[in-house]
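so my prof wants the structure for this chain in the tokens format not the other one, which i didnt know existed until like an hour ago. anyway here's the sequence
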Amino acid sequence: MWYLTSAFLFCEVYIFATSEKANLGWVDTSRSYEQRSKLNERAVLFRCEFFILAVAQAVLHMYHDTDRLLVPVVAQPAPQPPQDETTPTVLQRMPVSIQKLQKTSGQTAIRAVTLTYCVILLGPIAYYGLLRQSAWAIAYPIAKTFFTLHKSARPTGLTDVMALAFRFLFASLLQIVLWEISNQAFTLFASEEPLRKGQPLTSDSKNPNGSLITGLQAKKEIPRNMAYWELALITERFEDRRKTLYQDLDRVQGSTWSQVSALCIEEIQRVNKSIQAALQPSAPSTAEQPNQQPPPKQRISQPLKEGNVFNAAPQPKGTFDALASGVGSVAKSLGSSPGANPVGQQAQKMIGYSTDKVLSKEQQQNLNTANLSRQANKYILLLFESPLGVVFRQPFARRINAIVFGTPYSRASNLHHAIQALCKLVVCSLKEDTLGQVQDDVSSIIRTLVSTIQNLQTLLQALPIHWSDVAFDGNRQVKEVDDLLAELRDGLEQVIICFGEYADAIGLSRAELRAAKEAVNKKPEMEVARK
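here's what i got, hopefully its the right format
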């Protein structure tokens, strides 16, 4: 709808600016002294082509998922200034967002030119084949409101087609470039790091840690994503702010560390719950009946009458009523009599005789239920194997990502940021946690990371392939899940290196420590090949 509205607004502005020279107004007045005013089909075609352009842009926008926000899943360290003392160029002095727009300007121009030429070639075909009568029926009442037109006005045809094509080429190029640049600018602006003047967003708040916790608990996706991203940046770049997460104790719902760690663990535990729900068979819908029967209730009315409970039919009063009653009795007896029905047997004989005359024995065998089901399955598989069936498939990677990261919006960035922040806080607690409150939670954090790694590995091996996934090649490695496993292993490895020698003191058994080391050392085949 946004593309359609903006296309028509741009079209009207362009026509208003060039209507006298381009003759794109509603009424054709090129020879007004010779004939009556008539509706100009050039203007109708020009607006229809912008309508087709808006529909094509909307389809491409949805297909490529252009409106997604590219939130990085890894909190990068603070960028270092250049070491050389040479004068930076003009491009280097520009903001990062402007530099990114400049890098994508070539792709934007290519997409604009390609889409414009496709609409120029296919637009007139769609107009004359599908839209001409409908567009004329819509444009005529609009133009009649402002001009005097004859009732029998019909499409007048086009004049100077090449000039119209060049004008649409110029206008559509400007429109597509405007769409692309505005969309990329908004995406880059919304995907910037949650920093203000080089500091976290919540640093300006009166209660920075309280604002951060409120963001982590937000129900809406964007505030929660930005809060987890800010938490990961705080643990990675801002040492002074990170220390306050250990020292802030005076809170109603617990210390800042306890609330932040609980929220991060809850975010990781959601993966385990989703995997368990996906692998467990569905529970029976009916509840088990108790063994003891309830005592019978006391009867408060007389039992129902058995036998014929209807009143006797009234006696026929005339010859016509007697004849109708007799025909009705015969029909009821034929319909309700048990056993073979003489009318049904005769009908079945006629159907069988007709079938033998029309169809051969082989054709009759092909019409049974099993063959029909086999043929239907064959055609369904052919549909799924064709390009049209891509939208109906359920690939293995898509199902895995839906289970692990959730639907309809992915939680991949939240998961990565929660793992990074939690493990970084645990590692830095050896030097910065002067109150010693983190060590009580280290064992539960290690168990959570180990169980998540094991569940992800089990899911990759145990999830059955959907019957519609005809393109499955046997590869059960999914890039997004492998990246998450690598993140979990890196974080778990850092925690074990720092607290492995204190396993007994933190309440971690030798068996659990051994399982954690095995989870870290068990690298997937794809990750090893990538390295």
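also thought this was worth mentioning. DSSP finds 20 helices and four strands in the chain.
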